[in-house]
Write a structure and sequence with these properties.
homodimer; EC 1.1.1.169 (chains A, B); pantothenate biosynthesis (chains A, B); alpha/beta; 10 strands; ApbA (chains A, B); KPR-Related (chains A, B); N-(1-d-carboxylethyl)-l-norvaline Dehydrogenase, domain 2; Rossmann fold; ten-stranded mixed β-sheet
């Protein structure tokens, strides 16, 4: 019932901006992609998925294999989880239902330790991987996604049957990266998922938080000396936290992300959209756990701590 | 032309909430008080000054000695400056015009080094003092002031003819405190003005800034665990900064102000009113100079630095 190795069957759990974008790109590359949807099921089943991409032009996947229930999906070899970290517990049974035996579950979420809760709720036979998406994308309406820039995905192995076999684990991660690469998407197999997550935090900690705190998108944040310095100081603290936790990030990595952001089109990070729509902010994954991990390693991150406390106040008063 | 020692003549330069409140209290205690006004001159000359006080009940000073120009004022023995720190340079000539020979100029403003610019613009013969007001008061309309709680003023000597005579200097500061005390206002003569200013910063740094950053008054800030911790962390940094600059604040001082604030009625600090009315925020006095003074003493204050940078971004985008 599952797809072949050369054309694995891919399930998208949570067809928002991230799941929708990568799902459409993979489907256009010839993969057999199945989309699980909730509120947008009817719109997508009827009208398909539309991506307004500044990189690829307008994309339209008309014949979407759309499902409103995981039980209706065929068993998938790869499952891409693009939902919010705050909903992981409720997603676990859906993932298990849609998974072929030995399936690979790739969690496309930001933050630290986002797989840990899922892991305890999934069968041991499933591989769990994490993916960090460097992309400017947001949902514009039912079945409609706007892709502004970038698109790379860095992948690492979290846990599962290959946990203790480094070589086989890495081969599987490379298989995952290969899927994206065949769809024209830049993708790196990371030897260390935790390090990959810390690297992504170098971007998310400053920009996600400051977008909410200062009600500002990337262009104004990068146009003011004070916010630029604050971004850099927060990035430097993430790098210090990573280091304290044993992850030496590549030299100049923060500067690289800072420069990438300068060249990006004006972008509102996902946390701002959550704030605007009065949804829970992903504070645990992006702030609480990194702060706790750094502290456990004897490293205080005072500016991130202050930013987190301010955001927690805003979040509590926003819902 | 000046008043007697027992009944000195007092001029109020900038009859906003602070100048208006203390001016009315002093006038009601029998002092000869003269008020300099700008936009509110006509309203006050006609209708007087009204204070809606939660402490004293409604107060009305009907026959206000009001002036629209400093040149029209009689020479005053004491001048109370209640305007924003951001306008000090333009106030200096008005102060000089209204000052009797050897007059005492008391700057009722928050922040560090707020007297320094004034000093260079005033005659050497004038005494310059600073006063720190612990009071919840705001302007409600032309000639109308709301007094919610507290009222104490701590006074210290900045510079002038008595600069090198500690005993005479302290006697003059006590004379100033005595004016307020005779009006029923708690007032302390502080031996060290810089220390007094650092003490007041323990309150202003967290509450002024967070009121703007989080659009929150004191009650919500004191009702949330995260903002409470953030307030305490910012207070602790001010205490460290003071210490680095050689000012050992009284033991438990931050805890004392924290508890006072818990018992206060819900209060919007003055910086929030400035933000709301798109006026310049007093960032130099409350943040830039304390940060620079601490840094010059080898002490970094990372959370205050982050708060300042966020506020500077907000301020730049607010005007």
């Amino acid at each position: 019932m599952t797809g072949s190795v050369s054309r694995p069957r891919i399930g998208i759990i949570g067809t928002g901006a991230i799941g929708g974008y990568y799902g459409v790109m993979l489907a256009r590359a010839g993969f057999d992609v199945h989309f699980l949807l909730r509120s947008e099921f009817a719109a997508v089943a009827e009208g398909g998925l539309h991506i307004d991409s500044a990189v690829h032009g307008p994309l339209h996947l008309s014949a979407v294999q759309a499902y409103s229930q995981a039980a209706d999906m065929p068993p998938c070899d790869w499952l891409l989880v693009g939902a919010k970290t705050t909903s992981n517990a409720s997603l676990a049974p859906l993932i298990a239902q849609a998974a072929a035996p030995g399936a690979k579950v790739l969690v496309l979420q930001n933050g630290l330790e986002v797989e840990d809760e899922l892991r305890t709720l999934l069968p041991d036979s499933l591989h769990l991987l994490g993916g960090l998406c460097f992309i400017c994308v947001h949902r514009a309406g039912p079945g409609a996604i706007v892709h502004q820039a970038l698109g790379a995905v860095n992948i690492g192995y979290h846990s599962g049957p290959l946990q203790h076999d480094a070589a086989a684990r890495q081969a599987l991660v490379e298989e995952g990266a290969g899927l994206f690469q065949r769809a024209g998407i830049e993708s790196q197999a990371m030897a260390n998922l935790q390090q990959a997550r810390w690297q992504k935090l170098v971007w998310n900690v400053p920009y996600n938080g400051l977008s909410v705190l200062l009600r500002a998108s990337t262009t104004p944040l990068m146009s003011d000396d004070n916010s630029r310095e604050l971004v850099q100081a927060l990035m430097a603290e993430v790098v210090r936290g990573a280091q304290a936790c044993g992850h030496e990030l590549p030299a100049g990595y923060a500067e690289h992300l800072f420069k990438v952001t300068e060249k990006m089109p004006d972008y509102w990070p996902s946390m701002y959209h959550d704030f605007l729509h009065k949804r829970a902010l992903e504070l645990d994954a992006v702030y609480v756990r990194p702060l706790a991990a750094a502290r456990a390693a004897g490293c205080e991150l005072p500016k991130i701590q202050a930013l987190y406390q301010a955001l927690a106040f805003i979040d509590a008063n926003n819902r």
